[in-house]
Input
Amino acid sequence: MIKAIIVDDEKLARDIIKAYLQNFAQVEVIAECGDGFQGLKAIQEHEPDLLFLDIQMPKITGFEMLELIENPPVVIFSTAFDQYAIKAFELNATDYLLKPYAEERFKGAVQKAIDKIQTKTSAQKEIESLTEKREELSEGIDRLVVKTGNKIHILGLDQIAHFEAQDDYVAIHSDQGKFLKLMRMKHLEDNLPSGDFIRVHRSHIVSIKHIEKLELYEKDSYLLSLKTGAQLPVSRSGHSKLKEVLKY
Amino acid sequence: MNHPFIKNKGIIFYTAAWLFIAILFGLALRYFYDFSTKEANIDSFIFNGTFYCLGLAFWFVVRYNSFDSSQILNLIVSHLAAAALSVAAGVFITITVLKNILPQTEESLIYLNSSIVWRSGLGLLYYAVLILVYHLIKYYDDLRDRGQQQAQLETMLKESELEMLKSQINPHFIFNSLNSIASLTITAPNQAREMVVKLSDFLRYSLGKENHQLNTLEEEMANLMLYLEIEKVRFGDRLQVETQIEIDALNLTLPNLILQPLIENAVKHGIYESLEDVTIRVTAKTENGILRLSMTNEFDPKAVSKKGKGIGLKNVRERLRVIYGVPKLVFTETNENLFTVRLDIPQPSEK
Output
């Protein structure tokens, strides 16, 4: 038996998925959720094999929800928005259904998903490349969603003082505390608004608004103090970038 | 461009001017040559009448020669040719006719032959003056045409701008609604039919309206409610709508679909970004001949929402500015978890 969860903020959109799934005796819908928070909870509780996921939903998007799941199931996106997926998931998504979709189209997607689940090995990789793809394609970051235990935090960029590289993770220092998120500094550097954030060091990206002062503490070596009290090293290239932005 | 003296009342001025010249000419003949009144009048009538007719044709020399520095030589040659031909023709015709009409005396023959020189000179002067007048007319006409073209272009630009601002019906709304309909056909076919009709009515109204057109508040509100009913089918009880419309305000006018982007914003920030039930309030009243509209929606002030681009509100501002020529007709206000946008719509003065 394949366990499926549907996450969509419109009941009618969930209904049609359920109705179409009647043709698949081996798929059972164990939960349906109206937003990403509920979805996350249900996924942790039920560990489904298959996920039907809308993208635009209240509070957190389908993408953001997916980022917070450690072992994501096979995902079929269903959304009216073509701008995200058409490019990003042509190759990598298990499938991407553009609302409204034909039943045949839906059946094809589910069949693909079932095949994938039955040859379980490849599924894991699929999702990884899927989220990576999303990173590469991201058209600018305007907020970050992180999870500690069961709590989800949505961090606005103005709440973030600086980012710090920690192996495969990035530590986010914010008003709401320090959070770890699996991502790369390069991705942040490329997608954060360049007028607000600046990479001052291989391991540090700071919010320009949070800068308190810049001091010389050794020959050719600078130390950046933030309003939060944190002190960060500044590399030579970081220093020239700072000079440019702060115009001193 | 038409002939300036043939169209409209131009021919009257042209004729009057020639009559004046002919009288002067006749008086001159009587004074210099001691002609009788009758003879002077016949001579003047024949000579000036001939040039009166030729003069009308001079227009085409101006009309079909562009006053362009690269073709200055062409212009000179064609004017010289036209002047020589027309003066020769004019003088020849006059002399021939006069020879047959005037008494066939030796005296008059001598007079006619000696008059060829000054008649030619006078003919050249006529030619020059007429060409100058035609050039002035043409120049003035061109100037006016260009002004009209400019004005026309500006109107077109304005219209296309309005068209663009207006035609921003959210395609996702349509696709999501169609998906809801697809779903309803399975579970509740009757409701599906109803929703198809509502969506059709909404689209017909929204897509079919002409530019600039002012509609009554009654029509606009009906369309707005259609939109909200469709959204209600999608979101169920989560969306509540309260309206408070003064009866007197229903007949007032406002630009078509001006409320649509605002209601879409309200739904977007209310419903799309919130987990709670949301109430949207619409009010309309009339005050000092101004239609005052307001739309309020609840939102979650703590939401770290994806940045809206603010296009909807900006478009509404811009459209009202273009239509009414008044800079500030849109006001917004945020009060805890309530966002209000107000519009002041001036009414046409004849009402």
In short: The interface with chain B takes residues 9-13, 15-16, 19, 34-35, 37, 56, 58-59, 61, 80-81, 98-101, 142-143, 154-156 of chain A (CB under 8 Å).
